[in-house]
Amino acid sequence: MAEKVLLKKYANRRLYDTEQSKYVTLTEVTQLIRNGRQVEVIDAKTKEDVTAFILTQILLEQAKNKNGLLPVPLLLLIIQFGDNVLVDFFQKHLQQTINSYLTHKSLADDQFKKWLEVGKGLSAMAQENLSKVGPFGNIFDQFLKRKETGDDDKGSS
Question: Which of 58, 111, 119, 154 is least surrounded by CB atoms within 10 angstroms?
């Protein structure tokens, strides 16, 4: 994985990307993360790590655009229990759960793609083998010819 991108947060709320030597927006930081980069945000004056604050700010901006990120009952629980119960849950279990979900989703997607490829191969093999089924081959051939010409003996008795 690529090294962390160091961002400096200034008092005027602007973020400075030290790798690109330019100011960046929250949208640009979001795109860096979506591209697989890690970010670290340091307050330029105090040298305090404010990464969690900036990432939370990104999530809140996204939630504002979609009118909600988390269900109201969960938000109420977070506010009610704050540092006591939920911080431990979020730090330990939620990250592990999301990582497990993403791993299993990726494995399931890969398996589904393999099944589709096998299905395509079986379809071609099935068509080829229908003509090679020994004494029944002629029956299948006649059926296929009737279907192609539209003569399926529906009206004859």
Answer: 154
